[in-house]
Amino acid sequence: MITIDIIWSLFSTVLHIGYVNLLATAASLAIAYRVYYALYVSPLCNVPGPFLARITNKRSEFLGAIGYMGRFARNEPREYGDVYVYQPNAVAISHPVDVRTLASMRRRQLGPYFSMNYLAKAEPKIAQNGILSLKAKWETQLAASVDGRVEVNYYKDFLFATFDTIGALAFGREFNALKNNDRTMIDWIGDAVTYLGMTANFPLLANYPASLLLGRWERSYNSVIDYAKASVNMRRGYLSATSPENKPESLLMLLAGSETSSNTLMWTVHLLMLYPQHYQRAVDEVRTKFAADYLIGYSEGRLGLPFIEACIYESMRLMPVTGGLWPRVVPESGITLQGHYLPPGTEIYVNLSGANLNSAVWDRPLEFDPTRFLDNEEARRNMFTFSTGVRICPGRNLAWIEMLGILANVLKDYDIAFPEDYKLRGPNVLDENGNPKVLDSRHFFVSVPQNPERDCRLVLTKRV
Asked: Where does the chain cross the membrane (predicted)?
């Protein structure tokens, strides 16, 4: 009887207050509790960071969905420090010492997709699908030019070249994207990246009927997977993985093996155009050591072109293509970083961009200065674009062979410059820090310019 009286009393109270008011009150109390917990009770309450990041995961999910994660990863360490709140139960770190500490917490075996021994044997095929195909396309365009000048889109051409290379090495198939100027597969991959990003940040979108909103992107994702599986079947014995394992591995090979290398090349060339003194030094270095039309191999480039190699390092530091945040979980022992104790279970996001721009490690961190990597092994250890420790990028050897081979031979054989009508960027277009302003970027799987079709144009002439 007492129980019935209590229930009736509560029901009468609800009727008196009204359902809408009751729901509004409950929501207000829930929000107030969440704010109070975040500011005064949470283990992260003394760690600096954005207010919204303390309250909800939706802030980081939204930034990831619109491609702004890389931009915030570059800027937030300067505002909040080397350790800051990223989500209610997560922090981001950007000091090189902390990055190494975290990388050593949990051991995991990563087998490289390509060993250097294998790549040394495959270097002729890498050159054939990369720099030689690129030169063949440009030479054809130059031969058809009236004045010996041709405008190229270096974002597209670098992407086509590295994409064809990974197709030949990983799948044994000739994509011929560069030769045919065919964007089909590349557009599929772009859509697949969008699909993966959206479903990772908003899992409900992966399920019907919400998945209908991602129709085109999901179809492209499935097209990539089907193509990759067909390629694997054509090379019987290439992979022993089961079908579920093939999906992420196949897509990872296409993405990590092409877009990362091509976009690093793209940013390197863009930065060299913004800093003409470094461009001229790179050109002088390669042309004094190698004759015109001599094909520079990887080993020759590493031994004979330290400044061009430094240009690639500096580009990866300043504009890392994988410049988002990569998650780890604090083990049962907990961990203290920069004086902040993080309890077990706390998520830690490694901010690679922040580490590469950390002013405690890098002098003038926002300036493109390749000389900082000349005869400086410590600088190379503090550059985390390939990650570090047991989690270091397994495809870094292939990336270096592609990037150094293409960049060295391009600078040796061609003169490049901005088109006359290109006013958007240049050595005299400065940012708020007084440095040449770099193209605005967006970040999903990799950092790319917001409008590469319009902005990644160069005038190409044959070396005199």
From this structure: 6-33
pLDDT at 89: 85
Q: Report the binding-site residues for heme.
A: 393
Round to whole Å and give the CA distance between 377 and 206.
45
User: Over the stretch 80-135, which tens digit does the pLDDT of each residue have?
Assistant: 888 888 888 888 888 877 777 766 654 443 344 567 777 788 888 888 989 999 99
CA-CA-CA-CA torsion sign (381, 384, 389, 395): negative
- Residue given tokens 């309890």 in the structure block: 343
- Cβ(258)–Cβ(285) under 8 Å? no
Number of neighbours of residue 450 by Cβ within 10 angstroms: 11
* Binding site as annotated, residues: 393
- Residue bearing tokens 């160069």: 458
Q: H/E element holding 387? A: none
Helix (H) or strand (E) holding 72: helix 69-80
Asked if residue 389 has pLDDT above 90, the reply is: no
Amino acid in position 136: A
pTM comes to 0.80
Helix (H, G, I), strand (E, B) or coil at 178: helix
